[in-house]
Amino acid sequence: MRRLLAHRDARLFLIGQSLSLLGDTALWLALGLWVKELTGSSSAAGLVFLCIVAPGLLSPLGGLLVDRMRRRTLLIVVNPLTALAVLPLLLVKDASDVWLIYVVATLYGTSYVVLAAGQSALLTTLLPADLLPSANATLQTVREGLRFVAPVAGAGLYTVAGGGAVAILDATTFLLATGALLALKLREPRPQPDPTHWVRATAAGARHIGGVPELKRLVLGSALCMLVIGFGETVIFELPRALGKPDSFYGVLMAIGGIGAITGALTATRVMARRGETALTALGITIFAIGCLLMMDSYAAVILTGKVLFNFGIPWMFIGMVTLLQRSTPGPLQGRAFAASEFALGLPQTLGIALGAGLVALLDYRLLLLVQAAVTGATGVYLLIRMRGSWRPWSMISTTSWSMLTARRAHTRGRSWPRWRRSGPRR
Fold it and tell me: Domain 1-185's class?
C-alpha cells in the first residue's frame, strides 16, 4: 500500500475515482427516491435501476471503443459529457417530468459501460503489474466504504435540497475526476489499428478469455456464482423477520455486511500475494458459501456472523478475477476483455435478481440460501482443485511415497534392496 500511495499518478487516479464513486452512489439512490416521491409507485422507482443496468448489455461495444482510443483521452472526454448528461435533472418539477429521470439514468448507465472498461484498462498502463492488486483492493475498499456514507449523504441532500442538488454534486465529482486525469503525467502509446471487422474485433475480448484456461475458469465460475448471488438482493429482506426484528433492521444488516466487505477488501492483497489470484477468488467464493449456510440458522449471533462472511467473500472474488484479467491480457485487448467479463457476470446477476424476487414468494428463503451455498461452495472447491500446483490427493500420495523411498535409500545406502529369497548361499 505504501508503494502504491508513493506513486504520484496512482494517488491522483485513486482520488479522482473515489470522488466519482461518491457521486455515483449518491445519485443512484436519489433517483429512485425522487421517482418514488413523484409517482408514489415502487415499480416506477425500480425502473430507474433497470435503466442504469440495461446499457450493460452493450458493454462489449464499450470495450471496443476503449481499445480503439487512448484510454486517458477517452475518459477525459466521457467524464465531462456525463456531467452534462445529469444536468437535465434540474428541469424535473413534477410527475410529468419523470421521463427525464429515465433518460438521464439510461445515459448514465451507458457512460458507466465506457468508464468502467476505460478505468480498468488505464490502470494497467498507469501502474506496474505488481501494484495492480493493491490498486484494485483500494478501489474496492473505497467502493464498500462509500456504501456507508453515500446513501446517507445522497438521501440527506435530496431531502434537504432536492434532486437537482444531488445532480449538481454528481456533475461536480465528474469534473473533479476529469481534473485528476488531466494532472496525470502518463504518456500512453498510440492504439494499434485493428483491420478486422468490428463484429469480430468486438468478440476478441471474449475469445481471449476463452483462450486462457485459468482466466476462463475464473470468469465462468464467477458468472455461475453471480446467478445465485443475485438471490441475496431479495433474501436479505427476509432476515429481519427471521430475527424477530422490524423491517427497519435491514439497515443494521447492511451495515454489518459492509463491515465484512471492507474487511475482505483490506485483506485481499496480502492473501493474493501469497496464494495468487485464482486462490483468492476461489477462497472468497467458498467463504461466501459458508456465510450462506450460517444465515440459515435461527440464532441471531450465527446469522450475523454469516452475514459478515457473506459480504466478506465477494470482494475477494472480484479483486482476484479482475487482477488476473489485467495481468493476463495484452494492452490492446484490455478494454474488450474487461467488458466481456462484465457482460459475463452482469447478465446472470440480473437474471438471478429477477429469479430471487419471484422464488422468495414461493419458497422458504432458507432453501434459496441452501442453493446459494451449494452452487458457490461447489464452484469454489472446483477452482481450488483445478489450480496450478493445487492440492490433489493423488499427487500428495505420490509425493509422500517418493519421500519415503528416498529416505529408505538414504538409510540403507551402501546396501542392496531386499530381493526375492532364493536358495543357495549368497555370492
Answer: mainly alpha
Count how many residues are written for the chain: 427
> What's the grid cell of residue 389?
500446483
204-400 shares the fold of 1-185: yes
CA distance 166 to 48: 15
Distance CA 7, CA 392 (A): 41
Evaluate the CA torsion angle 56, 59, 62, 63 in order and state its sign: positive
* One-character DSSP codes across 129-143: GGGHHHHHHHHHHHH
Domain ranges within the chain, ordered by starting residue = 1-185, 204-400
Do 148 and 209 contact (CB within 8 A), yes or no? no
Q: Going from the first residue of the chain to its last (427 residues), give the mean pLDDT of each consecutive group of 10, the final group possibly shorter.
A: 78 84 76 83 75 84 87 91 91 89 90 88 85 85 75 71 84 90 83 75 90 93 92 78 75 80 90 90 95 90 91 92 92 89 88 81 88 94 78 38 42 40 37
Find the radius of gyration of the CA atoms of the chain: 26
| pTM of the entire predicted model | 0.76
Contacts of 191 (CB under 8 A, 6+ apart): 67, 68, 69, 70, 332
pLDDT in tens, 89-144: 999 888 888 899 999 999 988 998 898 888 888 888 888 888 888 888 888 888 77
Q: Please, are residues 171 and 40 in contact by the beta-carbon 8 Å criterion? A: no
Distance in angstroms between the alpha carbons of the first and the last residue of the chain: 70
Q: Could you name the CATH architecture of 204-400? A: Up-down Bundle (1.20)
Take residue 71 and report the three cell numbers written for it. Answer: 484510454
Distant-in-sequence, close-in-space partners of 86: CB < 8 Å, separation ≥ 6: 27, 104, 108, 167, 170, 171
Sorted by sequence, the CB contacts under 8 Å of residue 236 that are 6+ apart come out as 250, 253, 254, 257
Angle at 190 between CA 318 and CA 342, to 5 degrees: 20
